[in-house]
Amino acid sequence: MADSVATVEDGGVVASLPHNVTLVSHEDMFPPGLRFGPKLSGHDLGKNILPDPPDGTRLYDDSGALRMVLCSNGDFKRYDGPKSRERLIEVKSFSNKTTCLMSAWGKHIIELKRTIEVNNGQWVCHYTNYRGDDRYCNVRCVHTSGREVYYEGPLHQHRLTMIISQGGAAYSYYKDEGTIFQLIKLRAWCPNLDGGKGAMVYYIDKPFNPLDGDPPTLRIEHSTGKVGYYEGPHHKERLARVILPGGNEFIMAGERGNEVKRRHLGEGGKMVTRYWGDERGQERRVRLDANTNPEYTMVSQMNGPKGSERLTNRITLFDATGDVEVRSYERGTDGANYLMRQVYTDGRVDFNGREPNDNGGWSTFTKVAVSPSGQIRVRQTRSDPLVVIEPDQPPTKRQRVKESAQELLSQVNDMTELGDINEKAYVAIADHLKALTDAANA
Questions:
Q1: β-strand partners of 93
Q2: Residue 194: φ, ψ to 5°
Q3: How far is residue 87's CA from residue 104's CA, in Å, rounded to a whole number?
Q4: Long-range contacts for 172-178 (Cβ within 8 Å, ≥24 apart)?
Q5: What span, in angstroms and rounded, lies between the C-alpha atoms of 209 and 188?
Q6: Cα–Cα dist 27/32, whole Å
Q7: pLDDT confidence of 22, banded at 50, 70, 90?
Q8: Which of 240, 177, 233 is nearest to 203 (CA)?
Q9: What region does 286 belong to: left with phi over 0, alpha with psi -120 to 50, or beta?
């Protein structure tokens, strides 16, 4: 029964998870004498609910028609109709705390209203639309609390079809095969969810005992178009996945009540943003996989707290050729990111520097350039020419190039541990950097 709501917030993606309200007792959940409800002293509805007691007093009217059978304990049956064609119209049992009002056609009941007193109020059950030789009918039972339970089926074989919880918080629909182990809760309409717009809750398709609580929630379809998918046992379901209108999808992790974002799949899965963090609402972006261009795939690595993530590495893999381009970024003293290193598809590597410009900002320029053959050229400022480092010069600058290449390789390794970087891209990058290191050692 989806009688109340627990709300899961995942930083912009909200999914509402219904859960049970514990009712006072068994007889408040289901009406006595009907499926899943307590037994009613063995009396069968549809036959004589109370047998004629041996000490019952029969009362007749002036025409000789039977009008009442009065028992010594106060229980009675009341009749209507002419003599010899009397029909039972009311039964009152003080021992069972039951009152039945009936409409009949000949010997057959066509409508019945049954009131049963229970610990916390009463149930009023309406039996209507009797039909067929098996006395198939519809039953609607209303508890004082406002809870409604619906049945239908042949006499003494009524199956549960729907429950409306207190206050109309949920309309639950069932598939009932007749035994306690063959009841399946199909779905529940919860009109109070999403600010009164409503949502449909679907449950796992397995038999359950309604006296033990609801089966696990499978998904919630919101009227806004959002769909939340859940995993785990009843009362411990966690939000595992959310699909938003337009197709954007979030993959979640964590226990119920503290679900956090792990991945965001946009544009049909072509844009995948990966998140990290164990506190809901504080997840930070750590990687973006972009596959929107048919010619290449781009992987971006980020670092920093939520809302202030900065780009640290970007790898571009050209699918047709298998070539790889790598860019590494650093944050400058002004707080802005700048391109620090770049490995080109032909094997060239540039190491950049920055210097103030005439506009009051900063300009980036190539400070060290390494050719595919291993030639190294350097300069100190943008205005300086790139000068080749000869093999017989002191190895200090070569050592710095070597160390920088090894640092870049270490960062690429970190990326593989963080998110399964494309193996082909990793191998190609490693080959470039190994060649760069070999050149520095020459």
A1: 98
A2: 55, 45
A3: 7
A4: 172/1, 172/2, 176/35
A5: 16
A6: 6
A7: very low
A8: 233
A9: alpha
Q: How far apart are CA 55 and CA 75, in angstroms?
A: 11
- Looking at residue 116, its pLDDT comes to 85
Domain ranges in the chain?
Answer: 4-213, 307-441
- Higher-pLDDT residue of 370 and 425 is 370
Give yes or no for a contact between 139 and 152, defined as CB atoms under 8 angstroms apart: yes
Q: What is the model's pLDDT at position 396?
A: 61
Q: Is the pLDDT of residue 149 over 90?
A: yes
Write out pLDDT tens, residues 243-296: 998 888 999 999 998 999 999 998 777 889 999 999 888 999 999 999 888 889
Instruction: Write out pLDDT tens, residues 332-387.
Output: 777 788 898 999 988 889 999 888 888 888 888 999 999 888 888 999 888 899 98
* Stated pTM of the model: 0.70
Average pLDDT score over the chain: 80
Place of tokens 């930083």: 11
301 and 286 Cβ atoms separated by less than 8 Å:
yes
Q: Is 373 left (phi over 0), alpha (psi -120 to 50) or beta?
A: alpha
Residue 78 above 60 pLDDT?
yes
pLDDT at 194: 85
| 3-state secondary structure labels for all residues of the chain | CCCEEEEEECCCCEEEEEECCCCCCHHHHCCCCCCCCCCCCCCCECECCCCCCCCCEEEECCCCCEEEEECCCCCEEEEECCCCCCEEEEEEECCCCEEEEEEEECCEEEEEEEEEEECCEEEEEEEEEEECCCCEEEEEEEECCCCEEEEEECCCCCEEEEEECHHHCCEEEEEECCCCCCEEEEEEEECCHHHHCCEEEEECCCCCCHHHCCCCEEEEEECCCCEEEEECCCCCCEEEEEECCCCCEEEEECCCCCCEEEEEEECCCCEEEEEECCCCCCCEEEEEEEEEECCEEEEEEEECCCCCCEEEEEEEEECCCCCEEEEEEEECCCCCEEEEEEECCCCCEEEEEEEECCCCCEEEEEEEEECCCCCEEECCCCCCCCEECCCCCCCHHHHHHHHHHHHHHHHHHHHHHHHCCCHHHHHHHHHHHHHHHHHHHC
Residues 43, 90: Cα–Cα separation, whole Å = 15
Q: State residue 250's pLDDT score.
A: 94
